[in-house]
Amino acid sequence: MDVREIMLVLHIAGVGAWLGANVVQAMVPTMAAKQGGETAAGWYRIAGRLSTRLYMPAAILILVTGVVLVLQSGEAYSFGSVFVTMGFAMIVIGALLGKFVFEPGSERAAVAVESGDQGAIKTAAARLATFGTVDTLLLLFTITAMVVRLG
Q: 146, 142, 139, 150: which is closest to 17 by C-alpha?
């Protein structure tokens, strides 16, 4: 394998980690809630930590390998290519959502579960699910743009 192929494998693995974690985060809250409050609160705390433990390293990997792929492409594509710009935008959007929505929202959900505040649990879980869906749909759109080399 050459450098380009290695970078592409790592790039795809980073995106796969991001997308896979989004799918898990969409499914686990309902399962955790059925196990009881302690489990649900624990899940939300773990989900909040994923911002720095999983998503940030994946985003850095995606960013670094993406830059190398553009530099290695010769003139096939550039930093001005629409799909490359979309990739950079997705990294920024993901980082902002992680820091300002998912991390604090997960903590709010955990506190609500621990206090038994059903209204706050419902609000926090709905907000996390909505933004999780938005993040996942944007990620899928970005993946599509990369595959078809949009623009």
A: 139
Give me the half-sphere count of Cα atoms (radius 13 Å) on the Cβ side of residue 39.
9
pTM to 2 decimals? 0.94
The pLDDT tens digits of the residues spanning 105-143 come to 999 999 999 999 999 999 999 999 999 999 999 999 999
DSSP 50-107: HIIIIIHHHHHHHHHHHHHHHHHTTTS--TTSHHHHHHHHHHHHHHHHIIIIIHHHHH
